[in-house]
Structure formats: structure tokens, C-alpha cells
Amino acid sequence: MPHSPERPGPELRLIARDDVAALAAGAAIFGTGGGGAVHTVQLAVEIAIEEHGSVPLIGIDELGPGDAAIVLSAIGAPSVGIEMLGAGGQAETIVREVERMTGTRVTAVMAAEIGGSNGVAPVGWAARLGIAVLDADGMGRAFPEATMISMNVAGMPSEWAVMADAVGNLSTLRVISMAWLERHARAITVASGGISLGAHYLLTRETAPGAVIEGTVSRAIEVGRALLASPEPVEALAETLDADVVVRGKLVDVERRTESGFTRGSVTIEGTGADRGRLVRVEVQNENLVVLEDGRVTASVPDLITIVDAETGEAISTELLRFGQRVAVLAWACDPLWRSPRGLELAGPPAFGYDIPYVPFARATAEAAR
């Protein structure tokens, strides 16, 4: 399917091969440890663009009357995703099944989450399908469960999902709620080896406003460019994200396991330099969820917590954390949607099993906790 030469709106924006490195770097930061490591996906997307051309990037206000964007992402444990790569044609198989099932032509793809590889891969899928990428996502970060998506916060029903695994199995689900989608999709993913590709929701110019987090692809590219261009990348990230550098130090303990389709565990950072003598623990379930120091919560979901290399600023996903790494921990505020009562119900600390109240992160909060 060829790219459409014209899109609605004043200017045709394209994601070119030279934009992919910045997108990957920014998406890794917004992954908050999850969403999958970006390196392999970055290469795949660059190859897809070389073969099929640059990909149109459109805002939701540029969706035309005949446009529909599908929400597409990988699901599973990031630790498994390092070794189990996707198969060519998975995205196309899903899109064609959705079109057959709904009778609607898919003209764009949207990332379920801008974080990690799930924020980068849609560009490659779009290139191969000859469609656009929507400049939006469903999380503004990465979250581990299907329920934790902006369309669910907005009350948009999702009555179906289509999943494909790496060996060619195709599953269609008819679900009564996002909670049931999470249970069934997770079971299918575990049966598929721990990683699969899934789609749900068709977004149009009528349904997308207020149900998605806008501008996140452009924002990831902006953050990635700031990171890659600066001689002081950690400081550049903090400034660009309006974030705090919670601690700089060395990873002295990594406890990690894969269970029920998730990567779970915690890491401990021993402060170095100006932070010498401090011990900070980060709790993990695919993503970095809670920062603790001396029994106090410094930051927690749904606010964003990312562990980066202390020298390069490159985000380190949870499955790649290792003893002895020199790191910095950044924290910053989430999209306001997640601070709504419904957002906190779905993605606040209690949603992950933590019996702690959510305290909205602000830059002064981290300073006061030291």
C-alpha cells in the first residue's frame, strides 16, 4: 500500500531515518524502565524506513473523515523480549484481521505506550503498511497492564482485541471490560512464550480527542535530541523533562524475576559523590514504580521514574540493569490525566499492590525528602 501523498493539515510532517535515533532515545526515557529495550527495534525501524520511505506523522486534528487509527503494541515481559524477536508480518496480519472484522480501513497506527520499544516500533509497522503514525499514545509513558491506558480512563469501551504471536497464531478476543482483556491477553501471551503483538481500539477524529495523550511522539523526539546533543546529558534530560535527579550512584543489588508475564523485582542504588552515604531502592514491575529512601516514598506511579546511565544519560530498561552500573535516577510529573480519580484508580500505587498513598511529584518534593 503506498503512502498517501497528501494529508489534511497545513504541513506534512515525516519521520525520516535520521529521526529514529532521537525517537528511540526519548522513548527509552519515557519507558520508565519498561516498554522493552529500544536498540533492536531502532535498527528494525531504520531498515523499514530505508526500504519503504519516511512515515507521515499526524495529529488527531488531522484525522480525516475516512481515517481510523489502530492501537498496536507488544505485550509481555521485557526480559523475554531481549531473546524472543517478533516475526515479520505480525503487524500486517493483525491490521488485515481488524479491517476484515470491523469493515473499517486502517490508515494510521498509534502506540499504546510511548515508552520503550513500543513507542518506536509503530513507525516501522507504519512504514511497512504504508500508513501514518498518530502523534499520540495511550499512556504518556509505559505501564504494564492493558487496563492502564488513557482510553480506559476516558471510559471508551474496547469490545475486541486481536493478537498475533511469532509463530503465526492469530487470536481474536471479545471482552466485556479492559480488566478481562488484561487477563485473557496475558494468558495468551504466556502461552505464546512470553511476548506477543496485540491491537485494540479504532480511533477516529470523533473518538480520539480527550481519549489519548497528544503530541507524545514529537515530545519523545525532542527529548531524545536534547539527550543526544548535550555534553551533559543527565542535566539536559532534567531540564527538558522538568525532572529531579533523585540520586546518582552505583547499583549494589538487583533482584529480578519473570513471573505471570511480568518482570518483577527491585534494585538498590548506593549514592556516590555528593550523594555518598545514601541508599535508594526502586521497586519494579516491568516499569520502575516506587522510589524509597529511609522508609520514605520519594516518587511513585503514576509519576515517571527512569534509571539512566550516569555518564551517557541513556535509559536502562529493567531487564538490562546490572550490578555495578553507575546510574542516575530521574523523576518527573505524569500527564494530568493520571492524577484524576479514575487515573489513580487504574495506575496509582494501590493498583500495583502498594499500600501507600499517592503524593503528586513536584521538583521540590524530592529536595525536601533528602
Can you give a write-up of this model?
The protein has helices at 17-30, 39-52, 78-81, 90-102, 117-129, 150-153, 178-191, 216-229, 233-241, 341-347, 363-369, and strands at residues 13-15, 55-58, 69-76, 108-111, 132-137, 160-164, 170-174, 195-203, 213-214, 244-259, 262-271, 279-285, 287-293, 296-300, 304-309, 326-332. A hairpin with a 2-residue loop joins strand 13 (287-293) and strand 14. The chain contains eleven helices and 16 strands. Mean pLDDT is 90; it is low at 1-10 and 365-370. Strands 1, 2, 3, 4, 5, 6, 7, 8 and 9 form a nine-stranded mixed β-sheet that branches. A seven-stranded antiparallel β-sheet has the order 14-13-12-11-10-16-15. The radius of gyration is 19 Å and the shape is globular. The protein has two domains: 13-216, CV3147-like fold (3-Layer(aba) Sandwich), CATH 3.40.1610; 232-369, Beta Barrel (CV3147-like). Helix 8 (216-229) runs antiparallel to helix 9. With 370 residues, the protein is an alpha+beta fold.
Features of the shown structure:
about 375 residues, alpha+beta, CV3147-like fold, CV3147-like, 9-stranded mixed beta sheet, 7-stranded antiparallel beta sheet, 16 strands, about 30% strand, globular
In a nutshell, what does this entry contain?
About 30% of the residues lie in helices and about 30% in strands. The chain is α+β, with helices and mostly antiparallel strands and about 375 residues long. A hairpin with a 7-residue loop joins strand 11 (about 260-270) and strand 12.
